[in-house]
């Protein structure tokens, strides 16, 4: 792969850190690498709390479609923030595109949980997606033609072009999620991180999102954090289970026993079928009715 | 109302008052949309009150500090202290200090107390504090107008240059950080512009009522238009109307023009709430 700035092969510019003189850094298709990362939050008095992440090692590849699953409080969002350089681990090294995350984080598209984004602002969807272009267009009052075209292209790609002049507050959860993906894509990222993209959206919308992510994955490595096991195990190439420690599987390996080891014994792994949000046998979405009301998501006891 | 236009030719202070209204309306129309988007109306209130300390310092120096300070006006001291307050408040807010609200509240009260104390120990006329608190549209001087015009120019130029970065930090601070916007510097710059706007507005309605002009015109227009450029344009127009029309309407009556302006701002906002039950799609 090529370095986004210099056009030189990445391996040539990737610095070998003192603590990790690992020759496999030159592996051409690795875009991100965490080595023995341990992270603890600080208590209000300044001391370190119990580690949230312990001895995490992970590689993200150029064509990756990686899911990170785990229980609430397992460290999923923390891990994303470490890859973004928003948090610094106490131990271990993180490199993205061969550099510390802080230097390259404008190349990482980050899609936060839509439920955590302020929707009451008076700005319209286009304003919000244009704000994603800020690293390409610093000064002045209006965004230029290129920025507007890229923003509109991102809206079209995510199927939200007709919402460009709506407010976030008037959109549904699935639409908001797509707008946030468009905002990340407008910056032309080289890696896409998504935090719980399927939280709070119905199965029909989830299927649309999945199709979109599959299409994006043709060009972009994607990392998804989710607690939706059905989603992760059916759609993704690799799955990492995170609960303070991390284990990587190919998606096909995720079985009842691996889940039980992470969540405890009472987890239901239900086979994923695209199903009708209205549970209507005669629906024309081309989907199959949900077998039972409790559906296909993981249930905690 | 015809009386106002009749007197306009004989009383230059009436023109000054109208020009002051236009200049203040311009400032609140430009900065108000950022203030409501970023939800910092109460930080703006804190800055306005802390600036009382600056009024006190300026007056004290002017009358007790010898000839060197004789050209010092209260508005200069207020501007300096408001800018200082903006930076301190911005840093406190950024550090997410555990007791940020307590710290800001303490600054608010202590600086006001200092200002009142200094004014009390200043020999001579004590009317300056009252006009800073409640506004004095009837006697806006030319030097005040010049100062307001300079503040407006600074605000306008900065917004034209930094609008995109202001929007980025107003909409999503985390995204702005990731896109390598210098978030702290941009936040401080925006708060400094809020401080300048507050100073501009206190010349017209006084600090007690400044919050109304900073938030209500923008909040009213936000219920009818979509998109930031339209909001800025609409809020500026409405701001100028609100700071001038009520003043003309109540001329010659016992109603004080400052109160009329704020009541009009509140009334227009209330009507907009009733007209649009929901925000526009």
β-strand number of chain B:
0
CATH topology of chain B: ABC transporter involved in vitamin B12 uptake, BtuC
Any idea what the radius of gyration of chain A is?
20 Å
Number of helices of chain A: 9
Oligomer: heterodimer
Total domain units of chain B? 1
- Look at the structure and give the mean pLDDT of chain B: 88
* Straight-line N-to-C gap of chain A: 46 Å
Q: Calculate the mean pLDDT score of chain A and round it.
A: 75
What level of helicity do the residues of chain B show? over 70%
Biggest interface goes to:
A-B, 35 and 33 residues
What are the segments of chain B in which pLDDT stays under 50 over at least 5 consecutive residues? none
CATH top level of chain B is: Mainly Alpha
Helix residue percentage of chain A: 25-40%
Give the class of chain B from helix and strand content and strand pairing. mainly alpha
Q: Structural class of the secondary elements of chain A?
A: alpha/beta
| Low-pLDDT segments, ≥5 res of chain A | 1-26, 265-301
Could you please describe the fold and organization of this structure?
The complex is a heterodimer of chains A (301) and B (281). Chain A is α/β, with parallel strands linked by helices and 301 residues long. Chain A has helices spanning 10-13, 76-83, 101-104, 125-131, 145-157, 173-186, 203-216, 229-235, 256-263; strands at residues 30-39, 53-61, 65-69, 91-96, 108-111, 191-195, 222-226, 238-243, 245-250. A 6-stranded mixed sheet of chain A has the order 5-6-7-3-8-9, sandwiched between helices. A 3-stranded antiparallel sheet of chain A has the order 2-1-4, with helices on one face. In chain A, helix 4 (125-131) runs parallel beside helix 6 and helix 5 packs across helix 6. The longest helix of chain A has 14 residues, at 173-186. The radius of gyration of chain A is 20 Å and the shape is globular. The model of chain A is unreliable at 1-26 and 265-301 (pLDDT under 50). Chain B is mostly helical and 281 residues long. Chain B has helices at residues 2-8, 12-38, 41-64, 74-94, 100-120, 127-134, 142-171, 173-178, 183-205, 210-222, 228-249, 257-275. Chain B is globular and about 55 Å long. Classes of the chains: A alpha/beta (301), B mainly alpha (281). Chains A and B meet through helix 4 of A and helix 2, helix 7, helix 8 and helix 11 of B. Chain B: One of its GO terms (cellular component) is ATP-binding cassette (ABC) transporter complex. Chain B: Its main location: membrane. Chain B: This is Zinc ABC transporter, inner membrane permease protein ZnuB.
């Amino acid at each position: 792969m090529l370095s986004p700035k210099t056009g030189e092969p990445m391996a040539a510019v990737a610095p070998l850190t003192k603590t990790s003189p690992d020759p496999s850094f030159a592996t051409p298709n690795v875009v991100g690498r965490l080595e023995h990362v341990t992270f603890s939050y600080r208590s209000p008095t300044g001391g370190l709390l119990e580690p949230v992440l312990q001895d995490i090692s992970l590689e993200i590849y150029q064509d990756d479609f990686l899911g990170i699953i785990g229980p609430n409080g397992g460290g999923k969002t923390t891990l994303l923030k470490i890859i973004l350089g928003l948090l610094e681990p106490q131990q271990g090294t993180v490199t993205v595109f061969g550099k510390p995350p802080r230097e390259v984080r404008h190349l990482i598209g980050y899609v936060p949980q839509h439920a955590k984004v302020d929707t009451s602002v008076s700005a319209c969807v286009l304003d919000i997606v244009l704000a994603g272009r800020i690293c390409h267009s610093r000064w002045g009052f209006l965004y230029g033609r290129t920025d507007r075209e890229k923003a509109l292209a991102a809206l079209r790609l995510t199927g939200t072009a007709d919402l460009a002049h709506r407010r976030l507050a008037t959109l549904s959860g699935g639409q908001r999620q797509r707008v946030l993906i468009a905002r990340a894509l407008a910056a032309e990222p080289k890696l896409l991180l998504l935090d719980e993209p399927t939280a709070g959206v119905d199965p029909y919308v989830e299927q649309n999102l999945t199709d979109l992510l599959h299409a994006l994955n043709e060009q972009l490595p994607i990392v998804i954090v989710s607690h939706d096991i059905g989603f992760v195990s059916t759609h993704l190439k690799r799955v990492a289970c995170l609960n303070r420690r991390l284990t990587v599987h190919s998606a096909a390996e995720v079985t009842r026993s691996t889940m039980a080891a992470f969540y405890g014994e009472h987890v239901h792994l239900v086979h994923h079928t695209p199903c009708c949000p209205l549970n209507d046998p005669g629906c024309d979405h081309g989907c199959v009715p949900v077998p039972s009301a409790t559906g296909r998501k993981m249930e905690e006891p | 109302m015809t009386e106002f236009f009749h007197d306009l030719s004989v009383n230059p202070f009436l023109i000054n008052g109208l020009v002051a209204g236009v200049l203040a309306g311009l400032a609140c129309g430009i900065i108000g949309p950022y203030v409501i988007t970023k939800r910092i109306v109460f930080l703006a209130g804190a800055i306005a009150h802390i600036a009382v300390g600056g009024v006190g310092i300026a007056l004290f120096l002017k009358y007790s500090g010898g000839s060197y300070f004789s050209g010092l006006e209260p508005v200069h001291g207020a501007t300096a202290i408001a800018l200082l307050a903006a930076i301190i408040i911005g840093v406190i807010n950024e550090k997410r200090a555990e007791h940020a609200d307590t710290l800001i509240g303490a600054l608010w009260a202590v600086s006001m107390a200092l200002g009142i104390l200094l004014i009390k120990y200043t020999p001579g006329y004590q009317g300056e504090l009252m006009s800073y608190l409640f506004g004095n549209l009837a006697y806006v001087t030319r030097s005040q107008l010049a100062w307001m015009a300079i503040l407006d120019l600074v605000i306008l130029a900065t917004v034209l240059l930094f609008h995109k970065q202001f929007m980025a930090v107003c909409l999503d601070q985390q995204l702005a950080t990731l896109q390598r916007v210098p978030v702290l510097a941009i936040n401080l710059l925006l708060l400094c512009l809020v401080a300048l706007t507050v100073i501009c507005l206190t010349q017209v309605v006084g600090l007690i009522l400044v919050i109304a002009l900073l938030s209500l015109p923008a909040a009213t227009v936000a219920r009818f238009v979509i998109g930031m450029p339209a909001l800025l344009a609409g809020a500026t127009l409405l701001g100028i109307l609100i700071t001038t029309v009520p003043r003309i309407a109540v001329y010659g009556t016992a109603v004080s023009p400052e109160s009329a302006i704020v009541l009009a701002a509140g009334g227009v906002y209330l009507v907009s709430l009733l007209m649009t039950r929901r925000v526009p799609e």
